[in-house]
TrEMBL record:
EC category name: ligase
Protein name: Nondiscriminating glutamyl-tRNA synthetase EARS2, mitochondrial
Species, as recorded: Caenorhabditis japonica
EC number assigned by the record: 6.1.1.17, 6.1.1.24
Domain of life of the organism encoding this protein: Eukaryota
Length: 488
């Protein structure tokens, strides 16, 4: 793609989330593509917090945004923590910019003060509803002369600043969706509220201009607002940035991802499932989304994604949040991850969080666990299964004999375990003798041993458990189960 940036051939892009709760998976995708584009072209990736909607502000949400970007290695070059030459990077600290811009439009006759009360606006909406019309402001205050409006302001009357938005057709170019034509036929929008806070449209345009944003890369849901933004840029006599709208993330081919779905939020993938971050990023770029010569069977590192990223290859096809594909990438991520730098710290952090009473294992034991999983369990990819899933037995021993007794109610379990404990080896011929003496089929005996060792009937082949634990640990676990049986 041949770049024609707005400012001095410098790519500057921004991720501009609102701190209203947990980061949505669509927000992560937006940040990711902004980051890829910036790093590909030696540009700047900026984090801007759009916190002007004070009613929806959630304490701690900004920290969650930073945590997510850190976990996925999408470090901003500029932002509230990083600083920079274009700050502040929180909109609530930039109110003077928006007031100045709004008053500039008032002075040029493109906006006006509106003193109408909420009660009057409510009556207008009700009247429109009765007629079956789309509610529109009737422009009563637009006809106030400037002197009268200034006098009312000086007298302390509350007002908002509205933009004069006449019906018009706006044409613009989007880097993904091509030539776009929008008919703008709406009520005069509020630019500046009576409390001095801007609405989204004004703040967005003013900040992108002041921060010298060259490309606006955002979700497709904002495409419908771009026509209004083009009009605002024109009203200030500013050249707009390039616009890049990303396709939707879908649950199925016909159903959108809902914010009620737990997997709609970034925290679910790391905190709940324990999926490594680059697995989620690989999910985002599949189907060749911006990646040259995309190979669905290759697991891309973040460095490779940056190196191969091409904005012109972004398609209009929606991204399907496919759980099977995600599991595939989760397995590939685990297999390719370094133990020291990635897996060990993540596993220990998860143990401390999910299993506060468990004894933290030493590094060598944890390394043995990882090597076992990489060599024996090709489908392993979710770290959560190490603390509260099928592989929690690596770091804990059974705490109850209930499942063993329920699963094998007709056998003398105490006698069987005592005989197993007397063995010097757990080779098949030794076990066959125990099975024969207790009139057990070998699969039944293996089941009793498995439940005694790991507390479940599921898991690796029993021979792999023997190999991993060794005779001493197997005996300790069977002794524990015998003790639990005795207590029961």
């Amino acid at each position: 793609m041949r770049l024609t940036p707005l400012f001095l051939d410098k790519v500057r892009v921004r991720f501009a989330p609102s701190p209203t709760g947990h980061l949505h998976i669509g927000g992560l995708r937006t940040a990711f593509f902004n980051y890829l584009f910036a790093k590909k072209h030696g540009g700047d990736f900026i984090l801007r917090i759009e916190d002007t909607d004070q009613a929806r502000y959630v304490d701690g949400a900004q920290e969650k945004i930073y945590d997510a970007l850190h976990a996925y290695r999408l470090q901003p070059d500029e932002g509230p923590r990083e600083g920079g030459s274009f700050g502040p990077y929180e909109q609530s600290k930039r109110l003077h910019h928006y007031e100045s811009a709004a008053r500039q439009l008032v002075e040029t006759g493109q906006a006006y003060r509106c003193f109408c009360t909420e009660e009057r606006l409510g009556l207008l909406r009700k009247d429109a509803a009765k007629r079956g019309d789309v509610p529109k402001y009737d422009r009563k205050c637009m006809h106030l002369d400037g002197e009268t409006a200034k006098s009312m302001e000086d007298n302390g009357e509350k007002f908002v600043i509205r933009f004069k938005l006449d019906k018009q057709v706006v044409n613009f170019q989007d880097e993904v969706f091509g030539s776009v034509s929008q008919c703008i036929d709406e009520s005069d929008p509020v630019l500046l509220k009576s409390d001095g806070f801007p609405t989204y449209h004004l703040a967005n345009v003013v900040d992108d201009r002041h921060m010298e944003i060259s490309h606006v890369i955002r979700g497709m849901e904002w495409l419908s607002s771009t026509g209004k933004h083009q009009i605002l840029y024109k009203s200030f006599n500013w050249t707009p940035p390039k616009f890049v709208h990303l396709s939707l993330i879908m649950r199925t081919a016909t159903k959108k991802l809902s914010k009620r779905d737990k997997d709609a939020f970034v925290a679910y993938y790391g905190d709940e499932l324990g999926i490594l971050p680059e697995a989620v990023l690989n999910l985002m770029i599949r189907n060749g989304s911006g990646i040259q010569n995309f190979d669905a069977d290759h697991f891309y590192s973040l460095h490779e994604m940056i190196d191969r990223f091409d904005l012109s290859l972004l398609g209009r096809r929606n991204l399907l949040l496919d759980s099977d594909v995600l599991e595939k990438y989760a397995r590939m991520a685990f297999q390719s991850s370094d133990f020291e730098a990635v897996l060990y710290p993540l596993i220990i952090d998860r143990l401390k969080r999910d299993c506060p009473g468990v004894q933290i294992p030493d590094k060598n034991y944890t390394r043995t666990v990882v090597e076992f999983l990489k060599s024996k369990e090709e489908k392993f990819g979710f770290l959560s299964s190490l603390t509260r899933g099928d592989f929690s037995w690596f770091f804990s021993r059974p705490e109850s004999s209930d499942f063993l007794r329920i699963s094998y109610p007709t056998f003398d379990l105490k006698a069987i375990l005592n005989e197993l404990l007397a063995l010097k080896t757990l080779k098949p011929e030794s076990l066959a003798g125990v099975a024969k003496r207790h009139r057990l089929q070998m699969p039944k005996l293996m089941g009793i041993i498995r439940v005694s060792l790991i507390g479940t009937k599921n898991g690796p082949p029993i021979s792999e458990l023997f190999e991993f634990f060794g005779l001493e640990e197997c005996q300790k676990r069977m002794e524990l189960m015998a003790s639990l049986l005795q207590k029961s």
